[in-house]
Amino acid sequence: MSQHLSEQEIVRRDKLTELEALGVNPYPPELFHVSHYSQAILDTFDAEQNNLPDVSLAGRIMSVRLMGKAAFAVLQDAGGRIQLYIGRDAICPGEDKTLYDEVFKRLVDIGDFVGVKGYVFKTKTGETSIHVSSLQLLAKSLKPLPIVKEKDGEIYDAFTDPEQRYRQRYVDLVVNPHVRNTFIKRTKLVKTIRDFLDAHGAMEVDTPVLQNIPGGAAARPFATHHNALDVPFYLRIANELYLKRLIVGGFDFVYEFSRNFRNEGMDRTHNPEFTVLEFYVAYKDYFWMMDFTENLLEKIAIELHGTTEVTMGDKVLNFKAPFKRVPIYDAIKEFTGFDVSEMDEAGLVDVCKKLHIETDASMGKGKLIDEIFGAKCEGNFTQPTFIIDYPVELSPLTKKHRSKAGLVERFELMVNGKEIANAYTELNDPIDQRARFEEQAKLMERGDDEAMFIDHDFLRALEYGMPPTSGIGIGIDRLVMLMTNQASIQEVLFFPQMRPETEGE
Predict the structure, then answer these.
(1) What region does 182 belong to: left with phi over 0, alpha with psi -120 to 50, or beta?
(2) From CA 311, how far away is CA 288, in angstroms rounded?
(3) Domain check: are 59 and 198 in the same one?
(4) Which pTM value belongs to this model?
(5) Which domain range does residue 481 map to?
(6) Tens digit of each residue's pLDDT (9 = 90 or more) over 7-26
(7) Per-residue pLDDT reduced to its tens digit, 399-423
(8) Nearest alpha carbon to residue 175 among 165, 167, 184, 185
């Protein structure tokens, strides 16, 4: 994009020139030692003991109130915000008052980074503040920040437009402090999961993002080309098949936080690039996995909120284990009135017509059942609920049910009307797996662009033998949405995908 400077941007560039003429480097190279952060000072300062006589902080100037030979300013750092008291004679003890009169009063703007040294005290109004004895400009801001004003409890000129916020997340994080808290909680959530898995003997691994076969899920991939090998590659839609290869190789418990890519729609719960946690455990089944998953989510809720109850919009979700378990056919019958458990493809198409659900010729039995559940049932499950025992046609990587013909040992975890996790007792019979892949190939020939490719190397791995295994994928972005009370996935991604900006934006 070409650069069209506003009047304020021109003024700031002029100030940059003036600073350089005064011999002040607006982007100094030397290290500035930070001894304290604002929130730690606010939390620990004791005025009677005068326990913080020497501190140094760095951050952005967020407001300035000039009073002749002194000024109050607010500095924002990674910890939060704190007030500065800047006296001319304190930062300019000699006859030369240039640093205060010229640099600070005229040429330092809101948004500039400064480093300050001084001591902590309380003002007459009781506000913990820094009495500045030394001030240094660390970085000049050439674009003015949106100034969010507050008066009598009302917010004015807030930086709230979603498109602007997502495109300029760096600005959003500066002027909307609550946004920062969402991502701090996201990091804490991920750490909680890692600690939980590590404590149970799991090993974190990495698997390829570029794959020659996009396997492990029913989804449309992003395609690319590897020039050196002169072959097509795909950004992974899932890492499942690679993690299972590691189980074949002798690891009993592996996990990965996987960046996945699916070339599909975008909405409030879907982004084409997203994060999934997948883990696989040898010698376990989907009953064990349900127990383990509900204990993990209970732990996350307690770590982030101090309780198993989590507010989401106007609802209170309770992650106290155990969670309810409902067979998928029972859910469909409850919310549609139709028993589809014995229906063939034609019967399912007829049910879809009666329920006003669109279908097309590419849809097989499994996808038709999935459409019915998604359209009429999924949204009804607010509290954490395991939907279990899916039809075999819908689950090509899942072991057949030990006691229910035509079904597989699979569950999806529904919370607040959305799928959060998907798990199986994994199919480890290579002959059965090959037949399932071949059925997927037939669906692909019918035009189903989400059908799975046949992965011959994965079949070969299974032929070497994979022990009984259970695996799961948990949508981290959706889980963060629930745990931080966010209705849009874009609110929990630092940089969600956006349409490219056009000239002049």
Answers:
(1) alpha
(2) 28
(3) no
(4) 0.91
(5) 178-323+383-492
(6) 999 999 999 999 999 999 99
(7) 999 999 999 999 999 999 999 999 9
(8) 165
